[in-house]
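Hi there. Long-time user, first ticket. I'm pasting a complex I've been working with (about 514 residues overall). I'd like to know whether the download I got is complete or cut off, because the file seemed smaller than I expected. Thanks.
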Amino acid sequence: MNWIIENLPLIGQRTLEHLALSIPPIVLSFVLSVPLGWVANRYRLSRGVLLTVLGLLYAIPSLPLLIVLPIVLGTGARDSINVVVALTLYGIALMVRTTSDALGSVSSDISQSATAMGFSPWTRFWRVDLPLAGPVLLAGIRVVAVSTVSLVTVGAVLGIKSLGLLFTDGLQRNIVAEVLAGMVATIALALLIDAALVLLGRLLMPWARATRPSSTRRSRLTAEAAAS
Amino acid sequence: MIEFRQVSKRFPDGTLAVEDFSLVIPSRKTTVFVGSSGCGKTTILRMINRMIDRSSGSIEIDGEDIVGLDKVKLRRRIGYVMQNSGLLPHRKVVDNVATVPLLNGVPKREAHARALELLDTVGLDRSLANRYPSQLSGGQQQRVGVARGLAADPNILLMDEPFGAVDPLVRAELQQELIRLQRELDKTVVFVTHDIDEAFLLGDQVVILQKGGVIVQKGSPTEILTAPANDFVADFIGATKGKRALHIDRRDGRDVVLDSEGRAAGVLVDGAPSGGDPRPLEDEPA
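Hi, the file is complete. Here it is re-exported in full:
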């Protein structure tokens, strides 16, 4: 416990470094998944191929990927760009399928009605399809965020600074408190980012909550019925 | 005026939905397409705003072939109301009503002011303006749908079974509301339904369709009721039975109207409204 109190500034700094490594891949995988998911959803043929190939990205073991990427990208072995690129690939692997499903879940009644109103395909995508896919996209990006925060720690093996360094350092020096601190801080950071995303969702999609009351009432009624 | 000349529609899967369809839809009147599902009535309706493009033939609006017009611009000047309202769930009622003016670049403040007026027009309280569609009842949503269809003040209003999904009481209310609106606004309304009672109630011109968009009969409700073109029409409108086959019986000094089963359907009164196309007896308000 003493170790933690004495090293609070270090933990704080590692947390910030961890955050700085986590945010770009989360944002990038979201942004890149939108066009990829659109293509997958729009063209039946590409759907199977694209989703399978991109989904398989997740199967690449992270450590070898972090070793290979500097060679491919011509970056230094300890460059944080490697982590960002690797985690963006994993993020895309998770997010493209969700994006494709989210866009596919928009009711055709609403799409048709928007077309009939005189939305051009481009405007309709940005003002109707994408916003309505929002709740599913949010669910997807929450998974990506938590997964990214957890995967950033792997970089520590190569000496890239993050909360993961507390694991490697703690293991080598046999300081259990340091390993524990690293774990707890990683989980806390994941929860924090998750909460921020939920909050962002509420701000951007007030309609989703307005739409929900009937379903929560229904689930509450079912819960009450089950309890009695 | 909308004119169909020998219009056919074959879908990519090979189905011939509409074959050699010709019809003149007069301005400032309500034309109702009625027929069972799969008769092509919705396809015909959607060819007017090019949601569906015809395969052959021509469709003209006021003498102008719509094939030469920009689809998006064409749709913005034609009102469209569909079943289940088709409102955008992520936008407030006022924004939904203002959809087309906003797309046309009307300033937000102006578009909203007009939207609030339209809520009055369709009989909705302005306090609903800031709700989301899901917070409204089915009937209210349908009224918002009508307000949205009218927002850009189009000459033409297309209505695709707009009252099909609401309960009978609300439907009757919405139908009366549409009759009132049409008296005030004088639009060219093209209405699709599978309900013959609704067709007779709303239509100045009723077009009865069979599979493939074949016109079995067209005319005013009175013309169709008094002279059904064939057995199919007679059967479809139920001309020989129930409340369509009425007779008058004199009882206690008054003329009582009885249906084919001998049940009283109403009493004849003096001073029936004159002018226009006389409505069939049973549809006359008592």
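A couple of notes from our side: The radius of gyration of chain A is 21 Å. Chain A touches chain B at residues 109-110, 112-120, 123, 128, 131-132, 134, 205, 207-208, 210-211, 214 (CB under 8 Å).
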